[in-house]
Amino acid sequence: LIAGGPLAGRKQVLLGATTARSLGKQVGDPFAMGGQIYRVAGIYATGESLEDGGAVISLADAQRAWDKRGQVSYFVLQLTDPRQADAVKSEIEARWPDLTAIRSGEVTQQAQLMDIYRSFGLFVGLLAALVGGLGMMNTVLMSVFERTREIGVLRALGWGRGRVIALILGEALALALAGGLLGIGLGVGLTSLTGLVPAVATLLQGKVTPVILAQALGIAALLGLIGGLYPAWRASQLEPVEAMRYEGGAGGGAGPGWAPRLPGAGAFRNLWRRPARTLVTVVGVGLGVGFIVALLGMAQGVVAAFGELAGAGEIDLMASQAGVSDLSLSEIDERVAERVRLHPAVKSVSRLLFGFPSTPETPFLILFGLDPREEYIRHYQIREGRPIQRSGEILLGRYAAETMQKSIGQKVRIGAADFTVVGIYENGMAYEDMGGMLWLRDAQDLLNKPRKLSFLGIAVQDAARADEVARMLEAAFPQILVNTAASLTERTQDMQTLYAILNALSAVTVVLGGVVMTNAMLMSVFERTQEIGVLRALGWSRGRVVRLVLGESLALSALSAVVGVGVGVGLAYLFTLTPTVGGYMLPAFPPDLFLAVLGLAVALGAVGGLYPAWRAAGLSPIEALRYE
Fold this sequence. Notes:
Number of domains: 4
Helix content: 40-55%
Shape: elongated
Radius of gyration: 31 Å
Distance between the termini: 72 Å
Number of strands: 17
Number of helices: 22
């Protein structure tokens, strides 16, 4: 405690230091939470961001607030003899089969989730590093091209191949470490900025440790080695006489044979004057674009899955809890369903509850609770067995049954309860076919949500008036959000947050890809300075030169987009092969997604080509012709 005192009665709360600071609360202030008003008794600091961004109330207050009287989430045990931990753990699980005992330091479900987040972060970091490494390779490679005669002179003066390799690798390492230091500065700054956002600061706080800094510099050095290896080898292979005869210029051939037959063929043909630079740039930018395509495809898959879920079972509207940050957290009181059922514009209401319990056979199972007498159940296509008729029975989706190796008549243990498999369904929707369906009351008991629902499936009297009825129901029942199947995910906070993250990642891709593209186009302009001077001397205007360079930049970004689409589609489908959650995340690639990728490619081409085009247009014909 850094202020105030401990909890001494009902309706008192201790606030973490971050929470108190973000919300401007002091000892004695009122604090609203879960519809109740508490008095701030004290402020604490533990040094752990999740705790300092939280709050503490008494166990009795918590049980009342969340309607979990007589229940707890965990027991924390301190043993008289720590050496007996394994024996005590085994005895607890033997005497109470519905409990799982975990030793301190063992992997928990939360730890597994953190491992998933870390893996995702590592994947993003490796992708960014790969794109950066390719960009660096492009830069160093162009440096070698520009200094061909210089390298030839050094070789003629007796420099060995190893010394040339050391020279180029040293320059690549210096460039990489400079970029690493800049990246560390940006990372520390962004981490500090997140602490200024109350919603983020109360949940987590960034922490930059010496280990992280060392890892960052190590990755930067590795990038330098990888990015400089091929250019260094290429430089070491230059023959002194041939290198000293090198006259510079764009070099290369006339491009692929198909180029002259394409519209805008000149731009594509010019790109292949330096095939190595073009390929490195296309692969680097294409990987960034591909990552965005994969994420957008996964997001669209989630949208499509929820759309199918909302449009199934002969219903017109789907209602969820208003103001909830995540659809999986939606909770609607059953009394609301009964009142909605009485609305004159409503034909029928189906009550749905879903959750994510674990079983001995799978750590992740989507469980649906339905009333077999209501409309929504009709879309379940039972391929084997029969429908649910009583409590204690379960229907399994085809994929879930295969994963769990269950058949008709066998038992499935979920939590502390056993259910008999009476049927296997196959609806064609991954979310359902990899899940199971229980009687609504069984699901409420199992998920500890008495008389609570996740969604209401609403059939209206006149389907043509579905949008109008949705607005009427929202006005009459402000505690629910009513949507058509098409708009279910668009209006929810979690999908809006997801799209905001994707937009931010797209912006980062544009910036990084634009830098790589700018580098490539600048090198092209430098190499072709004399050529541009000749064109200007022959009467080409500045605008025509700008169009030439921008056209090549757009052509380069178009090639990158094609590669990116292939990479992105491949990555998205590779993710579906992961055993835990891959089957739930089937990607979708609607036409508007590819239009978005095309827009991203145009943005990359414009950002990457603008400065080189302006620089090329600003060249004086006489000075350009003199360029060596």
